[in-house]
Fold 1-deoxy-D-xylulose 5-phosphate reductoisomerase.
Amino acid sequence: EGASPPRRVSILGATGSIGRSTLDILRHAGPGAVEVVALTGRDNIAGLAEAAREFRAEVAVTADPSRYEDLKAALAGSGVEAAAGERAVIEAAARPADWTMAAIVGSAGLAPTLAALRQGRTLALANKECLVSAGGLFIEEAARAGAELLPVDSEHNAIFQVLDRPNRAAVEKILLTASGGPFRDWPAERIAEATPEEAVAHPNWDMGAKISIDSASMFNKGLEMIEAMHLFALRPDQVEVLVHPQSIVHSMVAYVDGAVLAQMGAPDMRHAIGHAFHHPARAPLPVERLDLAAIGALEFRAPDPVRFPALRLAREAMEAGGLAGCALNAAKEAALEAFMDRRLPFMGMAQVVEEVLSALSPFAPAGSLDDVFAMDALARAAAGERIAARIRASGLGKGAAFA
Ligand code: NAD
Ligand code: MG
């Protein structure tokens, strides 16, 4: 204690919701506990520079090359190096660090996260798209590099915590809990007309815009099903989703003897981030303590496959295997952007994803990250065509908006 050298830490996506919560965990780790290597972001230059100054980072990187001068100016006199562009983010991820948080949103996180993984150190993985799009590759690379992969998505972190490792073969299935999002109790007609403002307002968790909308459509849970299959080497039929409105039980593991082990906590991502930071130790975390007597009751119910087709699509992608997860995620990201721009109605997202999956199937396995990027581009283009065709068919023409 005390005499141990500081841990070298990097955060990819330091300006986002997970990134800022990670900085908070570092603040609570105490003086001298960490040495910050790289912090990366994209648009929020002031926030990036402020965090880099506070933690005396070695380097701060924006993914947007046009923001280089802004970042350099914001870091003037701080001694923090400034860099910009996609390559610079990947290079920063490859700088030696003992613990890296991978929290870039979307498939933009693939290459930087892989660069961090290849260091063979500890990778705290928040970006779920890495496992959804390239699960097989990531798991293989982690083993090859000798990296420790710690899940930060709250459900997967919960499963990691209650996984009885010596009895790994006795796992019957996992139960991924889902809050059900803001539309959990809405009728189908109202969901069909939901606006981006309604979709972004999550009842329990405070998250980035994209993942909040994915929670409303339950695509987030669909991505998490695929993520869990890869992380814990499960068959598709061993992954089940359970709606749990209180978000207190973060997920469960059911064993062959009928035992079900659950992990509980307040809905605060600093639980999972802090767990991954201190693992294998447990340390005090700045999170609310559970008052189960005050909460009183925990509810569980089966998800509705009609109002939330994302779960069925994810299961189909799991069963199809290979690059199906990549196609699902890329089509979903394109559809999500169209929904956010009001070019696609809410239920149009699942319809576009379903059309793209059936148009592109069957799916080959991914041999390399290039195969993943090729499928990602193909599925995005296919989704774009379908979105454009729907706009033409609706007679609204270019620039028209739904909702
Ligand atoms: P966010 O939108 O709040 O932050 C995203 C971060 O990625 C920012 O730092 C941003 O600058 C950076 N970024 C965005 N586009 C980029 C690009 N093209 N290149 C490089 N960097 C880019 O997102 P978030 O909610 O913090 O989520 C981050 C990841 O963690 C996502 O994959 C999400 O699914 C996952 N996750 C988030 C939560 C949560 O509670 N927020 C929970 C579980 C998993
Ligand atoms: Mg989650």
Notes: Residues 153-155, 224 surround magnesium ion (ligand 2) (CB under 6 Å).
